[in-house]
Structures are given as C-alpha cells and as structure tokens.
Write a structure and sequence with these properties.
9% of the residues lie in helices and 51% in strands. By secondary structure, it is mainly β. Belongs to the periplasmic pilus chaperone family.
C-alpha cells in the first residue's frame, strides 16, 4: 500500500513540476506536557510557518489510545491562518473535569498543514499532517525521573516473554529497545517505539532469543523530547 502511494505521488510530481507544500511546526517543542499543578486550565502553543507563502493550519486533538469518547480539551483557534515566515499562538483549554487526577492522560495534537492556492499554474498541493504527543499532567506525588526508576522488567518462561511493569502515574515512551542475552549479545529484533500507560503491564515476546534475555537497552523520551539511554536487568522469573 505504501509503495503504491509513493509511486502515485511520484507520478503526480512528474505531471506537476511545481510542488506547493507548507511547513508548519510547534516552536521549541516535539511533544507537549499540559501541567495543571496550580489549577491552571490552559496552555499556550506557538506555531511557526517556515514557508514563503501563507498557510492554513487545521488544529485538532484526539485520544492517544484512539478511544471514541468526548475529549475535555478544546482548541482556541481550530483554523489558523499564518503568514509566510511568521508564527501565531493558540491555546489549549481543559474544562476542569473529565480527566483522572491520579495519573497522566494521553492525547495527540494534530496540525493539518494546508497550503493556500499557489500562484503558479499546474502546481501540486499536498496537505501534511503533523502529530505531537500531548500529555495532560495533574499534580502528582512523584517526578518523571522517579517513574523511570520504578519501571521493572520480569521474565515469564511459560510464555517465552518479558513483562514490562509501569507502576507509576506517568506515560513512559520507550524507543529503540534492544534485548541482550547473558553474554551481552544482541538477540531478536529491536522495538522502535512503545508507550507504557500508567499503572499498566505489557508483555513482550522474547523474539527468537535462543537464551534467556538478561538485559534490556532502550531510550526513555523526556518531557523535552530528548532520548536518554537506559540499561535494565530482567528480573527473576514469573511462573
């Protein structure tokens, strides 16, 4: 399917030599943490248009786990016109109820990048959608660093798998997870990306590791979007 889409786009570009694509991004952010420690119910976001022409941004929020429930967050300007090489601000509002106060909630902020009608004829226009992780964070008893420290991994021989246990109120984003055997050798395929929900467990297959997995190497994504490398020992077996 992806190959078909790429081939189709390539053919369209050949037919339309002028390509009109806007370039929008959040200023200074690769993810958003909506902190509500002091009763604040809004957060400001700056959106930049790096293109040389006016752009129209369509902005929306959806649940990160794709649930089909009403969202207690609202965007101040769902449609936003941004002049060339300038930026504008929006605000996200929380209505004050509808989200748990003992854990984070996970959303996706969508910015649909729709260029205006180009001046050149026969120009191909592509609407690009940018997606940013958005976490609503109430006042919690522990810090994100403490949550990373509490993350545990245990072996389940009966299922030939490993169980990840996140006992914290935070969503933990993990990238580039690598399994290692008792000799420290890499085994199986790496996991590019996974998200552990608060107070949850997730089972990972041993993925054709011929010896028990002894250690896991992975990155934890921080609030700023930085990836910090971690090494964790797989704990005693769960029968």
């Amino acid at each position: 399917m992806i190959k078909v889409l790429i081939n189709t786009m390539f053919a369209l570009v050949l037919l339309n030599p002028v390509l009109a694509v806007a370039d929008l991004s959040l200023v200074g952010k690769s993810r958003i943490v909506f902190e509500n420690e002091g009763g604040g119910s809004r957060v400001r976001l700056d959106i930049s248009n790096q293109h040389a022409r006016l752009s129209l941004a369509s902005i929306s929020v959806e649940w990160g786990d794709q649930r089909q429930e009403d969202i207690p967050l609202a965007v101040s300007s769902p449609l936003l016109t941004i002049p060339a090489e300038q930026q504008k601000s929006i605000e996200l509002f929380y209505q004050g109820q509808g989200l748990p106060e003992d854990r984070e909630s996970y959303f996706l902020l969508n910015i649909l990048d729709v260029p205006t009608v180009p001046q050149q004829e026969n120009a191909l226009q592509i609407a690009l959608r940018h997606r940013y992780k958005l976490f609503y964070r109430p006042k919690l008893e522990m810090t994100p660093d403490q949550a990373v420290y509490l993350l545990a991994w245990q072996r389940i021989p009966a299922q030939d798998s490993i169980e990840a246990d996140n006992p914290s109120p935070y969503y933990l984003t993990i990238t580039n997870l690598i399994r290692r055997d008792p000799q420290g050798r890499r085994c199986g395929n790496s996991i590019a990306h996974m998200v552990l929900a608060p107070f949850s467990k997730k089972t990972l297959a041993s993925d054709n590791c011929f010896e028990p997995v002894k250690e896991l190497q992975y990155n934890i994504v921080t609030d700023s979007g930085r990836e910090v490398e971690q090494h964790s020992q797989v704990q005693s077996e769960i029968e």
